[in-house]
Amino acid sequence: MDVSVDIMSTKEICFMCNGNGFRTVHEDTTKTNVVLIQCLNCNSNGEAFILDREKHDKLKAEFERDYKPYLATLSDYVKQNKEKQN
Ligand SMILES: [Zn+2]
Description:
Number of strands: 4
Bound molecules: zinc ion
Radius of gyration: 16 Å
Shape: elongated
Helix content: 25-40%
Strand order of the largest sheet: 1-4
């Protein structure tokens, strides 16, 4: 098996930012302020090479189970900015 070809062909939409290249997070633990941050998982490309499928799938599963349900969403961010303008 040619490993280099295999690596080149495994590129996926980044699961952390859904291909946006940035993510929304709460600025601090008080969860009052939502901020945009660059996505480090894909270097803000929106797509990431999968170098280790097993490791990637494990990380993705953990992210979706332990972090995603608690993260601020883009709609939270939009809503917050609307409230600021009023
Ligand atoms: Zn990303």
